[in-house]
Sequence to fold (157 residues):
Amino acid sequence: MRKIDFLLDKYAQSHQNHTNKLIHWICIPVILFTITGLMTMIPFPGTDKHWILNWSGLVIIFVSIYYASVSFSIMLGFLPVFIFFLFLNSAFRNYFESMGISYFVILVTAFVIAWIGQFVGHHIEGKRPSFLDDLQFLLIGPAWLLHFIYKAVGLPY
Fold:
């Protein structure tokens, strides 16, 4: 069995309830988006609010290496998502800051609400989140969603 199949199967064990799955389809992308945005706000040497040259961009490289180690196809699927998140966060940050609204507060609020949603979903499921047993599952959650998209369009993962 391939490593990605093993990890997705193990992750799926605590994600059987329809409501929990639906919550994950909403909350996981929000969490990824907010983490991407929050990391862009950490000052990065030699840049000033650059949309790709920032801590988030650096972490995306390491996350991509991890995804490539379990499924090159999954990694290829995430690269455009991550790049889109970086670009969109930059645009939103500029927009909200031009209006005098703290984009940081918006991101933190969305992040907290999304995590509350995740835990509500697991309460409904009656099973604890997979990442509490193995932190690797923080990265498998997004791959689990992407593998459903791959299956729907007939792409191998």
About this structure: The chain has a mean pLDDT of 92. Helices lie at 3-12, 18-40, 55-70, 72-98, 103-125, 137-153. The two ends are 13 Å apart (CA to CA).
